Amino acid sequence: MPNIETALKALGIELPDAPKPLGNFAPYLIDGTDLFISGQISIDPNGRVITGRLGEEVSIEQGQEAARCCAIGLLARAKGALRDLERIDRLVKLGAFVNAAPGFAAHPQVVNGASDLMVAALGAEKGTHVRFAVGSSSLPANAAVEIEAHFRIQA
């Protein structure tokens, strides 16, 4: 199985530096063999927040791209925490919040943008995970999507 950095390169992804937190909280926490990463909002490769509400000004396809950008942010944060992505044994769980208009119900389709990237980058064995995907009436910075992660890592 190719390593994670090689897989990311094949996908045309260069991880950005991990962003600074927008509040008074830890951006990540390592507890034994668990790495918890605080929610990462949808930030595009140019450093701009992807904003808007799904079901209004943001399409499902744009939401999937926003979720993909969240996954890239999660991997960037993991690299900052671990220094080496190969310490990841598996992605355990994603928790996703979608900035959604009333009546919007395609949250799982949107979050597939993140899940698909994680499986592509980590491989099916390490990247297949459990998750939740819920709608929210607003998110920080009016982000379209915010996702948190729980990884199992090598100690």
Short recap of the structure:
The protein has 155 residues and is α+β, with helices and mostly antiparallel strands.
Lay out the secondary structure.
Elements lengths: L3 H7 L17 E4 L2 E8 L18 H23 L5 E12 L7 H16 L1 H4 L2 E7 L8 E9 L2
Parallel strand pairs: 3-4
Antiparallel strand pairs: 1-2, 2-5, 3-5
Pfam families: YjgF_endoribonc
InterPro entries: Endoribo_LPSP/chorism_mut-like, RutC-like_sf
Protein name: Endoribonuclease L-PSP
Task: Report on the architecture of this protein.
This is Endoribonuclease L-PSP. InterPro entries: Endoribo_LPSP/chorism_mut-like, RutC-like_sf. This protein is of the alpha+beta class and about 160 residues long. The chain has 4 helices and 5 strands; from the N terminus they run H-E-E-H-E-H-H-E-E. It has a 5-stranded mixed β-sheet with strand order 1-2-5-3-4. It starts with a helix and ends with a strand. The mean pLDDT is about 95.
Largest sheet: 5 strands, mixed
What would the principal axes of the Cα set say about the shape?
globular
The CATH class: Alpha Beta
Helix content: 25-40%
CATH-scheme architecture: 2-Layer Sandwich
Structural class: alpha+beta
Low-pLDDT residue spans: none
Gyration radius (Cα, Å) is 14 Å
Organism: Pelagimonas phthalicica
Pfam family, one: YjgF_endoribonc
Protein name: Endoribonuclease L-PSP
Domain Endoribonuclease L-PSP/chorismate mutase-like: 6-143
